[in-house]
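Pipeline run #58 for the internal structure catalog. This entry was flagged by the ingest filter as a single-chain record with no existing model, so it goes straight to prediction. Upstream metadata was stripped on purpose; only the residue string is passed forward. Reviewer on rotation: M.T. Logging verbosity set to normal.
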Amino acid sequence: MTLKMDADALNAFLESDFPQVAGQYLVETVDETTLTARLKVEQTHLRPGGTVSGPAMFALADLAIYCAILSRIGPVALAVTTNASIDFMRKPAAGRDLIAQCRVLKLGRVLAVAEALIFSDGGAEPVARCSMTYSIPPK
């Protein structure tokens, strides 16, 4: 499979179409099987108890899966999440960025299914697992 968007193109798309998240997220790598994205954890992402909040982890998974799908279909801004499930498995480290590793499991004409594992940067065990289905608008 030939990718339609590489990491640089995905980051540029996020900067232009989603300026509200500019600087918080970075697509680090993308290839035919995996996309890796980073959340630059800041104070605003933390919750009491010194851990990264669930909504921050969910947002990273959603953004990373969205970008994994766009890497295959191109810049379709109106592709939207239609289903999501997330399992929070471990407390992420507050002082480290979060890394999402995504795989697209099925890419159809109108639906895409993907999953993401989220890790504290440098950690070996995932802190969360997320699966999502996206609706792809007609051309």
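catalog note: DSSP finds two helices and eight strands in the chain.
catalog note: The first helix runs from residue 7 to 17.
status: ready for reviewer M.T.
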